[in-house]
Each structure stands twice: as C-alpha cells, then as structure tokens.
Amino acid sequence: MAGMADHRDWIARDAAVVWHGFTQMAAYPDNAPVVVARAEGHHLYDPDGNRYLDAISSLWVTTLGHRVPELDAALIAQVERGAHTTLLGNGNVTTVELSEALARVVPVDDPHFLYAGDGASAVEQALKIAFQYWVNRGVAGRTTFLAFGDAYHGDTIGALSVGDGGFGTDLFDPLRFPVLRAPRFTDPDCFDRAVELIAAHASELAAVIVEPVVQGAAGMHLADPADVARLAAACREHDVLLICDEVATGFGRTGTLFASEQCGVRPDLLVLGKGLTAGYLAMSCTVASGRVYEAFLGDDLGPRTFYHGHSYSGNALAAAVALAHLEVIEARAVLANVRARSEQLRALLHDRIAPLPQVGEVRLHGLMGGVELAPPTDGLRWGRRVCAAAVARGVLLRPLGDVVVLMPPLTVTPEEITEIVHVLAEAIVEGAR
C-alpha cells in the first residue's frame, strides 16, 4: 500500500470525505494526523511505511495489539459459519457460547447479557433498564440517577446526562435530563458526599452510576477501591441499583479482569465495551444481575418486556472474536503482564517524567496512565504539542486536554514501555515550550 500514494495525499483524501469524531475538521490536515495503512503487533504503519508504536491501544480497545493469530483465526472461522443473524427473538450459537464464557468471569450475580455496538449504547441500555426495573416492580418515583463530577459515560443523550459535560458538550445541555451530582474523584470527600446523597434521596433514585477505580476520560483520576466498596454498600443498604461502567476499565486494563473485583463489588448492572473484542469489531454489552433480569419476566408482549434492541446486537463475528479473546487472556497470562508492566511504568514515570518542571502530576493504575502537564497559561495546547512531538518520534499518543494519556496494549513488552517513557520525556521537553 505504501506505493499507492504518500501520506500527505492520504491526509488530503481523508479530509475531503471523512468527518472524524472529536476533531475540528478545518484544522485536521494541519495537525499531522496518522493515516494507517496497516497494523501489526503493537505497531501501526502509514502509507509511506513509517512505523508508530500504538501507545493508546487505538483509543483503548486493542488489548492484545493488532493481527493476533488466534483472533484472526476465530474471525475467519466464524465468517465460514455466517457473519450475522438477529438476536431479536432468535439466537445464535456463538453468542450463546460467548455469554456462557462471560458469565463465568463477570462480577455479577446470575448474569444476563444484552448486547450493543459501543459503550455509550450499553450505558443507555443500563439507564433504561434501571428506570424500567422500578416501574416493573410497581415502585413509583424512582426516576433519578446519581453520578459523579468529571464523569464520562458516552455521547448518547442519556450517557451525556449522567456524564458531567466537557468536550464541548455543554451545547447539548437542553437535551440532558437532570441528575444528582456527587463531587469529582479529585475531591477527597466525594464518596462521603455520595453516600450522604444516596441516604437522602433513596426514594427518588433509580440507580447510581460510577466508573470503578479510574475515571478515564476525565484524565485518569483515581479512586480508592475501598471507597467504591462503601458506595456499593450504601446502594445495598438503601435498595438503590448500582451501575458500574467498565467500558474503559474492563478486560484487564487495571490488572484484574474487571476493576470491580478490586473493590469487592458485584453491581446490579455492569457495562462493558472497548476491550470486549480486543479492538477487532464494535461490540458492547450491558450485564444485568438475576435480580434485575427477573423483574422483566412476564406475559408475551406484555408491559414488563424491555422494548429495546439493536440490529447488530450480539453480532456473531464480534462474539467469536470476543470468545477467543477471553481464551487468549488466560492462555498468555495477560493479567500478570499488565501488573508487571504497570510496576515498570510506574517506576520509570517516577524517575523520568514526574521530576520534569513541565509536569504537574502523574497518575497510573494498571496500564491506565495520565501525565498532567503544567502549562504556565491557558491556551498553549501543550497536550497536543507534546503528543505531536511523540508521534514524530514514532510513538502514537493522544491527549485529553493537557493530560497525555498512556494506554499501551496489555501485552506491551518491557522494551516498549522503556521506549514510550523515553520518547515522552523528549516530547515533553520539546512540545511544552
């Protein structure tokens, strides 16, 4: 493919026809984007053959890197059996097998799986399920949700509502429904306040939604697992449903298969996405506990039915890859590598990055990291400039404002961790000027 056109030509062709999310298209060609021609292992290649270490796991989804032989084989084998059949009123063998495998590992009691295509859609499902749960039980007034400051749960209207704005979404405030808002994770009293709000508003609350341990899109802000456990205990005490949004933290990213495990929490609803298919195909799911699921059982076509679904829900190709992904995580001892590489990354960040005068704070849990820059004034776009300097050195990074996100594949090697930190240090010095 490198001989078809050079990278600049592909950028121009891209800008002429593609509308990129979270991107100002008027500036897109000038921001040195990488147009990927192929991917292999932990690296991406542009049409000129330049190689980039994918240190953001292609927006946090490619858990094992690219072109994983076991996943490629699972996808090809499923193509030979059939790409997709509807799950609306019918089933598919591969999706059943995936659900059985997930049921053995998710931290949810008697789990049942409702599939969607992306994390925001799965959050939307969870919100609607929590709302209808109380209606089906004949309990009036349980229509409100409690969420945290700085939360991000996706871009659909319900997900935006429980999220805390940002990313230019204030424009859509008239479309968002009101929620109870606990303080952000950076407030040391945020969980105390959340517990108080649950006690005071239990009769109004349908559910509490939280990103356990790490608020990813907020800039990798961290919570003590014990505080998340206290939140869950308050929900149980006051009979409020708990939704754990593990779209970003699920499938090993924090060092356990699910971050909820570190908190000792078994939510009523668990939201999964991103790493579910290791970045191969779009798939997410909402996991409902048996307690929640049973509230929807009733007469055929009756009012207890959950009238919600998607055309590609439970897609067989995605399910086949997701099933193989679970097997590879175990076979390759991926979680052990996450924990080892996290300790290595923590030590290198402490030694090489934290002391830099351009750095305000370093945050890391598992292989979810954020380096918060400290620009002297607003509007300098240090995050963008640092990441551009890193890309020029062959390491693909992406900022959240002035927080440089570190999200390498879970199978990242010791040598690659060293390369990421070395390049980041150089990029900070060059870009943050």
Give structural notes:
The protein has helices at residues 7-17, 57-60, 69-81, 93-103, 119-136, 157-162, 190-201, 225-237, 259-263, 290-294, 316-331, 334-353, 382-392, 414-431; strands spanning 38-40, 43-45, 51-54, 112-116, 144-149, 180-184, 205-210, 214-215, 221-222, 241-245, 269-272, 284-288, 359-365, 368-373, 395-396, 398-400, 403-406. A hairpin with a 2-residue loop joins strand 16 and strand 17. The protein has two domains: 7-64 and 333-431, Aspartate Aminotransferase, domain 1; 69-331, Type I PLP-dependent aspartate aminotransferase-like (Major domain) (Aspartate Aminotransferase, domain 2, 3-Layer(aba) Sandwich). The protein is an alpha/beta fold. The protein has a seven-stranded mixed β-sheet, sandwiched between helices. A four-stranded mixed β-sheet has the order 1-2-3-15. It is built from 14 helices and 17 strands. The model has no long low-confidence stretch (mean pLDDT 96). The longest helix is centred in the last third of the chain and has 20 residues, at 334-353.
Summed up:
With 433 residues, the protein is of the alpha/beta class.
Strand fraction equals 15-25%
Q: How would you sum up the major sheet? A: 7 strands, mixed
CATH class of the largest domain: Alpha Beta
Query: How many domains is the backbone divided into?
Result: 2
State the fourth-level CATH superfamily of the largest domain.
Answer: Type I PLP-dependent aspartate aminotransferase-like (Major domain)
CATH fold topology of the largest domain: Aspartate Aminotransferase, domain 2
> Radius of gyration in whole Å, from Cα?
22 Å
Q: How many E-type strands?
A: 17
Reported CATH architecture of the largest domain: 3-Layer(aba) Sandwich
The main sheet orders its strands as 4-12-11-10-7-5-6
Mean pLDDT, rounded to whole units?
Answer: 96
Shape call: globular
Helix-residue proportion: 25-40%
Class based on secondary structure composition and strand pairing? alpha/beta
By oligomeric state, this entry counts as single chain
User: How many helices in DSSP terms?
Assistant: 14
What is the CA–CA distance across the termini? 37 Å
Could you name the ranges where pLDDT drops below 50 across 5 or more consecutive residues? none
